[in-house]
Amino acid sequence: MYCFLSYIPNLLTLMTLLDICPADWQSALEGVLTSATARSIEEKLGEELASGHSYYPPFELLFAALEGLRPRDVRVVILGQDPYHGEHQATGRAFEVLASTPAPPSLLNIRKMLERDLGATAGSRFQIGRWSEQGVLLLNTTLSVRAGEPESHKGIGWQTITDRIISLVAASDQPTAFLLWGAHAQKKHVLVNGPRNLVLTAPHPSPLSAYRGFFDCAHFSMTNKWLASRGEQTIRWESAC
Fold this sequence. Notes:
Blueprint: E1 4-8, E2 11-15, H1 17-20, H2 23-33, H3 36-50, E3 55-56, E4 76-80, H4 105-118, E5 136-140, E6 145-146, H5 158-170, E7 176-181, H6 183-186, H7 189-192, E8 197-202, H8 219-229
Parallel strand pairs: 4-5, 4-7, 7-8
Antiparallel strand pairs: 1-2, 3-6
Helix pairs in contact: 2-5
């Protein structure tokens, strides 16, 4: 098996994608995380560092979106495209940034949609990572990006792994809502069709497209109405405010 050389301050350690995958997901993902595609991703990330480039998030946070969530716990999936490409931004969860980092435009637009949809009043920080505690999976379809170069890792094989994650969640017995924002996320519609799933689509929250209908999509209230109709606990979306 190929191993990835990851630099941690004062320590050079050998890790693989399987090593950093949360334990609750390892058995379901072991096949894809030990595949030739996974080895190729590990090699590519190692080459990035060896050539003097940085990438985000750090290797140990690549599967942060799965932390604290078992596959059967996922009740909502929000799909992003790839991580933020600025320093001190990406956390491993889609659309989330570190608490010390100013909110990017897409995240601000998600907050505006929440305010319009539910009448919530957001404070100075908008911490959508809190949603994961309620079963919301904030997943990017590409899990890494070269510093300063958006979409730079979209062709290195990540979608083989993230498609497996999406399909795994979609096939569970748990009713799951999939919020597909933007054309890229909407291409995953074919993976999430099923009688137990709700699929909602809207333009991407980026300033380039949000004006086309994202602010009025009301996905948060629609998701809660659907969950309640199935006897499921609703999401406290305001907890991010």
